[in-house]
């Protein structure tokens, strides 16, 4: 059954409005503050929000802006007294469906709510939940995402080690942009056959090459008016790099074997865990394409650099796994939490998600215990990135650089040394 969340700081009025909706066949819950509303939205499926404009610790506008920022595309209705109507009108300009003068318990308002729920049902569930970061590095990344997402003209290059969630970042950019109602198309360039990469991206015409038995539209066409995400973009060959650069500059492309150009309107987001500057120096990647893609670079930190996020992120993943597997696991016991926080997570967020999903299925009781967590119990493995053994120092530094996507600042943190010390060691071992 669809759920309406009422946000109203007057408990009596909130309860009366909730009971009125329930009597009219609509499931309703209420909370008494903006903070409680955020928490409820993070942990429950909600189909419509009915919020008072003026609340003790904030207002409905603040909640609406928070929902927009965090990817909640849920119908939002503002309840208002006479004196707050100008503010409520402003809320409508920022995405609220309508504003409703109090008292709202009328047949007209009931019709507005039912129409909003019907429209949402017809359009599909467009809510996409994103994890709210806690650690300084992740919070800084989220701030940059919120800044760049609405700026449609900027290409974004997401850099980070494997498993850090680069596609997740790209999806956030899409959802928070003006293109969120259009398609998000993700392409893993690392698995594209080199001889077919151009066809996959730009399409081809019948007879363009052996096996081209009919016309094919490519990913550019599928992403038109939306966002095209190219993961591991460094794997594209020289021919496709040249065609991609021209498509981005001219906003036009030609299908393989085609004679006519097709106009395109996409927002491009690319990602890599490779050192593209090194690839440029070795002649494997075009410098002009790099600068075109790198208009706004984003770095995704290692999970090991975001200790404060490990447990909240695991709980967020547990909630998703509970829904997927129809389980009701409540959380992780204290010993499991210690192990999750002390482990080095070489596979980053991807590895954490795999561990949480498996544990959710294996859990015998309400709480996940150490028996269901499939990670080494040696803690953060102090020796893994330790420089105590001079014989292994060069190999350890290389391992840290690989784990961080050659981000020397992050590698220094992982090794437990300063950046200046790392640079000295890079010169010592001729790794600079």
UniProtKB/TrEMBL annotation:
Record has Phosphoprotein as a keyword: yes
Domain Response regulatory span(s) in chain numbering: 3-117
Domain Sigma-54 factor interaction: from-to ranges: 131-361
UniProt keyword annotations, A-Z: ATP-binding, Nucleotide-binding, Phosphoprotein, Transcription, Transcription regulation
GO molecular function (one): ATP binding
Highest taxon of source: Bacteria
PTM sites of type 4-aspartylphosphate: 52
Pfam families: AAA_lid_14 (PF25601), HTH_8 (PF02954), Response_reg (PF00072), Sigma54_activat (PF00158)
GO biological process, one term: phosphorelay signal transduction system
PANTHER family in UniProt: TRANSCRIPTIONAL REGULATORY PROTEIN, TRANSCRIPTIONAL REGULATORY PROTEIN RTCR
Name the record gives this protein: Putative transcriptional regulatory protein, QseF-like
Organism of derivation: Bacteroides stercoris
């Amino acid at each position: 059954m669809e759920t309406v969340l009422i946000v109203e700081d007057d408990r009596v009025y909130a309860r009366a409005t909730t009971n009125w909706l329930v009597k009219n066949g609509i499931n309703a819950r209420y909370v008494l503050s903006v903070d409680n509303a955020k928490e409820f939205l993070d942990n429950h499926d909600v189909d419509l929000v009915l919020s008072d404009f003026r609340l003790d610790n904030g207002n409905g506008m603040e909640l609406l802006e928070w929902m927009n920022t965090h990817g909640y595309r849920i119908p939002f209705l503002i309840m208002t007294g006479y004196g707050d109507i100008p503010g409520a009108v402003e809320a409508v300009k920022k995405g609220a469906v309508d504003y409703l003068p109090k008292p709202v318990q009328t047949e007209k308002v009931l019709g507005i709510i039912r129409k909003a729920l019907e429209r949402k049902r017809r359009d599909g569930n467009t809510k996409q939940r994103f994890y709210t970061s806690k650690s300084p590095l992740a919070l800084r990344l989220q701030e940059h995402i919120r800044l760049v997402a609405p700026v449609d003209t900027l290409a974004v290059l997401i850099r980070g080690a494997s498993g850090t969630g680069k596609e997740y970042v790209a999806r956030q950019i899409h959802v928070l942009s003006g293109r969120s109602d259009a398609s998000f198309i993700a392409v893993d360039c690392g698995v594209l056959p080199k001889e077919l990469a151009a066809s996959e991206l730009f399409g081809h015409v019948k007879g363009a090459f052996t096996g081209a038995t009919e016309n094919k539209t490519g990913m550019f066409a599928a992403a038109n008016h939306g966002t095209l995400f190219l993961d591991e973009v460094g794997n594209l060959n020289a021919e496709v790099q040249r065609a991609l650069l021209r498509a981005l500059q001219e906003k036009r492309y030609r299908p393989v074997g085609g004679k006519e150009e097709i106009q395109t309107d996409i927002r491009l987001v690319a990602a890599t865990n490779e050192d593209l500057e090194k690839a440029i120096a070795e002649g494997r990647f075009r410098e002009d394409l790099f600068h075109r893609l790198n208009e706004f670079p984003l770095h995704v930190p290692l999970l090991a650099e975001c200790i404060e996020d490990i447990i909240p992120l695991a709980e967020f993943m547990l909630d998703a796994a509970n829904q997927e597997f129809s389980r009701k696991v409540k959380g992780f016991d204290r010993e499991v939490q210690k192990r999750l926080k002390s482990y080095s997570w070489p596979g980053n967020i991807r590895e954490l998600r795999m561990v949480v999903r498996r544990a959710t299925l294996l859990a015998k009781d309400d709480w996940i215990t150490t028996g269901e967590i499939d990670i080494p119990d040696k803690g953060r493995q102090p020796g893994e990135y330790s420089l105590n053994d001079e014989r292994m120092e060069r190999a350890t530094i290389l391992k840290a650089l690989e784990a961080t996507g050659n981000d020397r600042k992050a590698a220094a943190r992982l090794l437990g040394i300063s950046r200046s010390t790392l640079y000295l060691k890079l010169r010592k071992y001729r790794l600079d």
